[in-house]
Amino acid sequence: MSRAETRVYFLGVGAMGAPMAACLLRAGFDVTVFDTSTQRTSDFVALHGGQAAKSLNDDVQKFDVVVMILPNSAVVEQVLFDAQGIGHLLKPGCVVIDMTSGVPAKSIQFNQLLSKNQIVFIDAPVSGAVPRAVSGDLTIMVGALDSEIACVIPILSAMGTITRCGPVGSGDAMKALNNLVSCGGYLIGVEALLIGTRFGLDPEKMLEVLNSSTGMNNSTQKKFAQYVLSGKYNSGFPIHMMLKDLNNATDLGHELGVTTPFAQLCRDLWASASTMLGPQVDHTAVAWMCEAMAGSRISEHKHD
Questions:
Q1: In whole angstroms, what is the distance from residue 168 CA to residue 104 CA?
Q2: Local structure of 139: helix, strand or coil
């Protein structure tokens, strides 16, 4: 089946989903989109092309692949298995690619339920945020058997680089653990900058040293200068989305009986920031909470 003949149903055309679906259109796939916001759906079609579904379950039996990037596994479950859901309407052989940052155990359950109707479920969460969604250069963490992923590699490759993590649920587990490490690196970096500036070090010089030394991490390279020292705090990724991944990571640790004191502390600090600052605030603004606890500032930029 050619790309033009592969009918893709893309659910969720928000900040991440819209550029990802646009990548599929540019790659030559036949894409129909749906979003609970009719405005987002119509805006997408006007800007990128493709078709708009009239309702969630509008003629879904015609699709070969369903791609979705939704708020969480609970919403995925509603979309697939509620009374108005699409799971029972999909044709045998259809592949469901869930790019939501989901709960591993839930993805395993969804796979088991859909497989009864010869439908393949793959978890494929992403990392890279909006800029890399636009460029089609996301990191895609896939949970699936090799035989299950083979037919959708062109679709996934149009949106980013694929890393096969293991069977269903593995992609979700890896995404949660990736963001756990990212969040830990961000917090410790902020605290290092606070100590250094209290001592009298220039934060820009600190980043120069960190980024040429063993203290380098994603936050020192791509967040502190861009969003903290600049005072912009506008990376486009809100606290509540990061906290969701942290909850998934620590819950997984608890389920497996792994003692993780630092991971739990990290999660609790981000939860406190969400309560203090608001869940919709950009995640880089967690630095504000750290500054408040330290009683000093990293830079002279005023917070909005």
A1: 8
A2: strand
Q: pLDDT digit string (tens) for 23-51?
A: 999 999 999 999 999 999 999 999 999 99
What's the pLDDT tens digit per position in 241-263? 999 999 999 999 999 999 999 99
CB atoms within 10 A of CB 215: 15
Among residues 54, 116, 175, 232, the one annotated as catalytic is: 175
The CATH number linked to 217 is 1.10.1040.10
Count: domains in the chain: 2
- Active-site residue, 175 included: yes
**What domain range includes position 187?**
174-294
- 129 and 246 both lie in a single domain: no
Beta bridge partners of 164: 142
Say what the pTM is.
0.93
Does residue 217 sit in the same domain as residue 274? yes
End-to-end CA distance of the chain: give it in Å, rounded.
52
Q: In the structure encoding, which two tokens stand for residue 215, read together?
A: 């203290």
What letter does residue 301 receive in the DSSP assignment?
P
